[in-house]
Amino acid sequence: MVENSERSVHFNEYFKVIRNRFWVIFTIFAITTGSGWYVANEVLHKIYTATAEMQIRPRGMVDVPAFSIGTTDRQEDPIAFQSEFEVIQSPDILLPIINDLGLDKTWAKRFKSDQDSLPPVESLGYMNSILKLDLKRGTDIVEITVQSEVPKEAADIANAVIDHYQTLRDVEEDKRNSRGADSLRDQINQQQAVVDAANAEVDKLRTELSNTGVYAVPGSFGSEERDEQDLDSRQHDLLAAKEDADTRRVLLEQVQNLNDDDFVNTLDALGRSEPNIATLRAQSLQVDGEIDNLLKQGFDENHPRILALRAEQDRRKQQIKDLIKGLRSAMAVDSQMAKSRVDLLAKEVDNLKAKITLDQSSYLTPFRDAQRNLQKQQDMLDTFTIRLKQLLADRPLLESPVRIIDRAVTPTSPSKPDKNTYLMISAAIGLFVGVVVAFLIEYLDTSVKTMADAEVLLGIPVLTVIPNRGGPMPLTQESVRMPHAEGYRILRAKLDLRVQNGIGPSVSTLSGGPDEGKTTTIYNLAIVCAQAGQSVILVDGDLRRPMLHHLLNLPNDRGLANYLRGEGDATEFIQQSALPKLHLLAAGDMPMSDIGVLAGDKIRTMLDDLKQRYDLVLIDSPPVLGISDGSIIAREVDYVILVIQHRRYPREISLRAKRAIEEVHGNCIGMVLNCVSVKSDDSYYYYSNYGDHYNNKKKADRSKKRLRPVKTNGKPSLAAIRKTDRESDEF
Predict the structure, then answer these.
(1) What is the pTM of this model?
(2) CA dist 171 to 98, 177, 568, 652, Å?
(3) Rounded to whole angstroms, how far apart are CA atoms 162 and 51?
(4) Cα(418)–Cα(46) distance, rounded to whole angstroms?
(5) Comparing C-alpha atoms, which of 642, 626, 605 is closest to residue 507?
(6) Which residue in 461, 508, 486, 464 sits closest to 664, CA to CA?
(7) What is the pLDDT of residues 648-697, one digit of tens each?
């Protein structure tokens, strides 16, 4: 539990630092993010990307009638496509593109080269650096990506690459087809010579046969060949007929001695059952069942119904026997017809053999062989001719090995730099640097941050905390309900400034440096004490930069300076303010030559006199460090209050101020933390939150009445006083 509590405390401290330094973090974050946006939009070169797609068929693959867009049934070979990538990136493709588009001259101007155009080697190198080829996974589609500072240039290069590559592949494909046609023509010419020689041989043998008295009719070779084909067909039919006749004969021999029931069952097993027999047998079984039922019911064998059923049963059995007899006769007839077909086919085969034997006499054999050779060579010649005609006819219809899927279009927005990425990175860096700087500032900030810091450092209590909401500013009768007014009432209550033995106490406010609000503190303390019914005298001891007369709208022509110069008693220069219980001893006019006239004995005498006249003597003084007046006043007054502005000066300033008071034996009874940011420092929350109740209650009144000091005729307004106060080092 202790560890968790410590961690929670640490986290809260970190959160406080971030909250207190929010504007530092936000400023650095905004500057860094804006710088990233500016760099991405104005400084970095914009790169545009154009992409074209084409489907290619690597060399050596079998031609297909059409591409399958985006997919392929074959496993693509990455090595084959890598070879095509090398071809696309070769000078044969890229140099013509560079020359046609005039890129060598364009790039020379862009790179501020002293040459009119880049050398081919440099142009090719730059072209390959902006050109990227990629094969879509699982397809034969190649992506051509080009990056350039000019949008149209990127699209033109990508389109030119696919156009030049397609032209190159089409030319190569046309040359390959032309080489195939030329090869076929050579084969046709050679085969034509062979056919002519075979034809001459046939004519020669025909002439020789004519001289011997045997005439070879042109085309008789075809008749002989047909006879041989008929012989083969008839021999095949004869074998089939013999097998069928043997099957029928064996089946007839096996079933002719079987009884009727076995005969029918055998036909059923052979898949040659007779549907009528099966129907009649089923009906016969049904009649037997009806007879049995009637007999079980007590009918006599001679009963008319039973006799009728038995007559019907005999009729069906006779029908079955007649059908079986017909089947036996049909099987015998089928067997005899099969044997007759065999005899007929055997006779036809014998006749064809005799005819072919007659045609193949010793005189006609060489001639027939020559005719066969001529026919064979002619068939080969016809085959070559058909292939050539088909090739020539298909050439205009052949699919190009390159198919353009998508042409590049001119990009409208740059692909680099990625503005979103730059913004995200710059925002992350800005946030990180802002947090680091915030913690660094917090670490280097040695000013007083909390009441605990101040009390530990100085060893005196914090009497009150003055929030910065609506202040610090002078109090008036109309502003007594402001959030910071309660802080001065708390200060008055803690001091318990009461008259003892007819002598009122004297109090002074001191600070280590200027601008910490000690004048405002002493003035507001005087206001709350006077409003509480005490008679208060305010003495402006800051002769160099007096301010109290401005706050009370009183003149400063005569005052403490006149008393110190011996021009009269101090009581002669006291002025009455608008508050009945509040009087002012202004600083008076102090020439530069009289600086340093403040003396301890005169101050002591003046204070002794004033303390007998008033319930409370409050003296404003200059900063205690660097000016002797503050030390003199601190030594002579009864109580000294050290005013420290929250998070303004290093702790060393406040520590030295306290030491300076102690060195003159001043009675420093406590300190006031001024201008505390209660929103950022939640430890001061309760010093101001309760006052919000009164603040909200009088919100409408404050919108109508602005804070202003008590006016006298001819005196400056509150706006003028605030302007003067801002110019002062005491407000």
Answers:
(1) 0.47
(2) 21, 10, 121, 90
(3) 11
(4) 9
(5) 642
(6) 508
(7) 767 677 778 788 888 888 888 888 887 776 655 555 555 555 445 445 55
